[in-house]
Amino acid sequence: MDLDRPAFAQQCVRMGVLCGANPHYLLGVAQLRSKISDGSQNGAIGPFCVAQADWDANSKDDTLGFDFSPDDINLWTNQCSVFALMSSRALSSFVSAKGRNPSARELYVQQFPTAPTATLSADLQAALDATADLVDPAAEVVLDPNQTVPSTIGSADQPGAGSGSGKFNSKFNVVFTSFVTGGFFSSNPDDLSVRRSIRTNNPGALNISAWQKKRLGFAGITGDDGKGNRTTVYSAPEYGIAAWYHLLAGVYGFAKTGAFTIADLARKYAGAGAAQSTIDNYVATWCKFSDLPLNRNSVVQLNDDNQLLNLGCAMYRNESGVKIPWSNAQILFGIQHERNNTLPPPPSGQS
Questions:
Q1: How many CA atoms lie within 13 A of 65 on its CB side?
Q2: Where are the alpha helices (DSSP H) in the chain?
Q3: Helix (H, G, I), strand (E, B) or coil at 336
Q4: pTM > 0.85: yes or no
Q5: Which residue in 98, 346, 91 sits closest to 235, CA to CA?
Q6: Sign of dihedral through CA atoms 342, 348, 349, 351?
Q7: So where are the chain's domains?
Q8: For each successive 10 residues of the chain (351 residues), what is the average pLDDT?
Q9: Which CATH number fits domain 5-142: 2.30.29, 2.60.40, 1.10.530, 3.30.200?
């Protein structure tokens, strides 16, 4: 049964942005594998022709709140969710191994290693061409105004195609990018109409320090905001998030204990000699902006992604003052790759 293509595209955009997968890639794969139809063939089920074993291995994710049963594979809306997660995980594996974003064809082979390759480029290109016009109308329906419209993929064989692979800024001599497909990034740190932490790809709004100048993705420094703040610019939000994790683990020394309380962090964050009222204000604000309840005595484990995601989002909301544009996948990418010392190098074009 053919599915309603605009409705299917909307779900691909919604889940692609949530999981960090390019929606046009999702649409192209569904077109290639099933012509965007529902049903089963040779043990492969639904519009993405997912095998039951692959579904079962990817149907649960605590961070995203996914907890699908084996039978949920038969609902195409659920397939969009799980296949977006599968694609995001395949993308992360490729970037970790290669240090760059894949082409659509490379990502497909990463997900389906036994796929016939003789005509894959041409077949996938035809599927991408057939679905390109679905992306923008779907994004207009489902995305918030501050979310970036996902890019479409022009060439199935171009590395980084459709992955938010970057925009060159001649002033900073940097390719600004996101390492998560469809992830938000700023390419203009000088745009004063945008909140500082957002336009600098620095979610923690870390002011410049000697150690940051040595970080991967360091791109420059903003001017003084009139209050003595000169904020570090990173070429990708994932680099800024990784620097935030390094601040907690290395600079503040919490890696030695493996954990800290919210009050401990506030004292470090406020700086030596800070008034107790300043420390208390940080505690109160972070607790207010957290999705999961926090108080001054809450303990955060450095090796617990869910706890760090909750804390990071709270701190980033405090710094930006608005709804944060970075996906959970971007935040976790920065945390996990910094912890594992596997951050990819900047894309070519950055000095």
A1: 4
A2: 5-19, 23-34, 52-58, 76-98, 104-111, 120-142, 196-199, 237-246, 262-270, 276-289, 305-320, 328-339
A3: helix
A4: no
A5: 346
A6: positive
A7: 5-142, 167-339
A8: 94 88 93 93 91 95 89 96 92 74 89 89 96 94 74 79 60 84 84 93 96 96 90 96 98 97 96 93 96 96 96 96 90 94 72 33
A9: 1.10.530
